[in-house]
Amino acid sequence: MPEPFSGTTTHSPITHHILSVLVENKAGVLARVAGLFSRRAFNIYSLAVAPADAHERFSRITIVVDAESAPLEQVVGQLNKLINVVEIRDLGSNEALERELLLATVHVAHDERDHLLESVADAGASVVDVSDEAVTLTLSGTPTALNAFEAMLAQGYPSREVQRTGRVALPRLNHSATQA
């Protein structure tokens, strides 16, 4: 079994498992999966779901689970019992490509806007909306890159709103490649 992803927060180190679960795209499946975690007091750190094929017959659920609250074998065993689950993959940190999307609205004075736009460009983020008082930005990348970008925003622009999607992940095509 692959090693879990090890991430940290400002509070304490957290170890995560990334599960890619292919399910039938039917009403109530997501509720049953989430209910399974809730009933067993497994902490879901991040959850993303979307159709996995052009015909929308299947959906892929990417679940990032707190490894402390949920032994991996127990989680996988419980998921396998759900009738609409087709496939479960545990994606270790070396074999997964992870991405997340961040949207942030930053309230910034007009005379400070050039500095913000330079920082945005340096990070690879894009401006998606502008008003007289604020700028809305977007950045797609690894959780580490988004954490660094969010920290930069927090340091220089205390008045902001931030929303992140949570991780999505797929297996790497070349398992020997380094994290991109």
CATH architecture annotation name of the largest domain? 2-Layer Sandwich
Strand % is 35-45%
Q: Averaged pLDDT, please? A: 86
Overall shape: it is elongated
Order of helices and strands: EEHEEHEEHEEHEE
Give the CATH level 1 class of the largest domain: Alpha Beta
Number of helices: 4
Number of beta-strand segments: 10
Sequence stretches where pLDDT stays below 50 over 5 or more residues: 1-12
| CATH fold label of the largest domain | Alpha-Beta Plaits
Domains (count): 2
What is the H level of CATH, i.e. the homologous superfamily of the largest domain?
Answer: ACT domain
Q: Mind summarizing the main beta sheet?
A: 5 strands, antiparallel
What value does the Rg take, in angstroms?
19 Å
Termini distance?
Answer: 22 Å
Helical content stands at 25-40%
Structural class computed from helices and strand pairing: alpha+beta
What does this structure look like?
This protein is α+β, with helices and mostly antiparallel strands and 180 residues long. It folds into two domains: 5-94, Alpha-Beta Plaits, CATH 3.30.70; 97-170, ACT-like. Chain A, domain 2 (Alpha-Beta Plaits). Helix content is 25%, strand content 41%. The protein is built from four helices and ten strands. The chain has helices at 29-39, 72-80, 113-123, 143-156, and strands at 5-8, 13-24, 44-51, 58-66, 85-91, 96-107, 126-130, 134-141, 160-164, 168-171. The strands form two sheets. Strands 1, 2, 3, 4 and 5 form a five-stranded antiparallel β-sheet that branches. Strands 6, 7, 8, 9 and 10 form a five-stranded antiparallel β-sheet that branches. β7 (126-130) and β8 form a beta hairpin. The protein is elongated. It starts with a strand and ends in a 9-residue tail after the last strand. Residues 1-12 have low confidence and may be disordered.
